[in-house]
Amino acid sequence: MPAGSPRPRITAAVGRLWQHRVRPLQALFAVRRLIADPGATGEVFRVIEALKGDSITRAVKRMQASGSGRLLLAAKPEINQRLGDRRALRDLPEGSVGCAYLALMESQGISVEGLVAASQEVARGVGFSEDEQWLANRLRDIHDLQHVLTGYGPDPLGELCLLSFMTTQTWNRGISFIVFMGRRSYRREAPAIAVDDLVAEGAALATGCQWLPAVPLEDFLAEPLEEARRQLGIVPPAGYQRARNLQCMHLNGAQVLAGGAVASPAQPAHR
Questions:
Q1: Where are the domains of the chain?
Q2: How far apart are CA 107 and CA 93, in angstroms?
Q3: What pLDDT score was predicted for residue 179?
Q4: Distance (Å, rounded) from C-alpha 12 to C-alpha 222?
Q5: Within 13 Å and on the Cβ side, how many CA atoms surround 152?
Q6: pLDDT at position 12, please?
Q7: What is d(CA 37, CA 14) in angstroms, rounded to the nearest whole number?
Q8: What is the per-residue pLDDT for 43?
Q9: What is the pLDDT, as a whole number, of residue 260?
Q10: Residue 7's pLDDT is what?
């Protein structure tokens, strides 16, 4: 091959395009399975993987442009180890971030280990660099911690709004597609809820606070929850909280709202 031949560069470019390709049919089938079984968290990861494109690559570049992001990339702390240590979480002060996180996990019967196991149902991160793989895992592991920090509950509406927050903070075509489908479901099945306004509220919350992937969130576990929110610039979503208060009952797949009963929309990311 002649010196300076462009062929290696072309081959590398083609490889990147193949790595970042999107697979819409796979995503559509996965969303249909998720709607049929809202507890199938593995389908969420199938959607994300099928539509991820270059979202993680771009997020890593953003991390590299941030002082705190560069420190995290260099250290690569495994936050799932901190979040999975329930004995240590129980020793944290009442009202702390970690205490609230533990209460959420125990009340819902979920764990960070379960989230990791669900993600392993899918071949994730093929061709990722070490930085990309670490960041993809961290974004997965902080999902439920973000429930606590933002004030979005683990109910279907809270999941949908949190996904809007997440994809606004770190754009992901797969998560955006789940939000799109969830909005359609709510418009059809729960017209009493102004779902578009609530999804927009999640996006506004995301743009108004710090970019959480570049924040050492493990350092906030012992902090009082309200103080952590203040430092991070997070204002709990008032619109969502009002809408949630209208939900009088959620039993056997039905929601009884202020005006009557409607079928429950599929939960985008319930575990």
A1: 22-263
A2: 18
A3: 92
A4: 45
A5: 27
A6: 38
A7: 37
A8: 74
A9: 31
A10: 53
Q: Are 217 and 79 in contact (CB under 8 A)?
A: yes
Below-70 pLDDT ranges, the chain = 1-32, 34-42, 45, 48, 50, 52-53, 119-126, 247-271
pTM of the model: 0.79
Question: Among residues 258, 205, 266, which one has the least CA distance to residue 43?
Answer: 266
- CA 240, CA 165: separation in Å to the nearest integer? 12
Q: Where are the alpha helices (DSSP H) in 20-122?
A: 24-36, 41-51, 55-64, 67-75, 79-83, 86-90, 97-108, 112-119
The DSSP output letter for 219 is G
SS3 83: helix
Identify the CA nearest to 51 among candidates 70, 66, 29.
Answer: 29
**What pLDDT score was predicted for residue 13?**
36
- Looking at the DSSP bridge assignments, the partners of residue 261 are 256
DSSP string, 8-27: HHHHHHHHHHHHT---HHHH
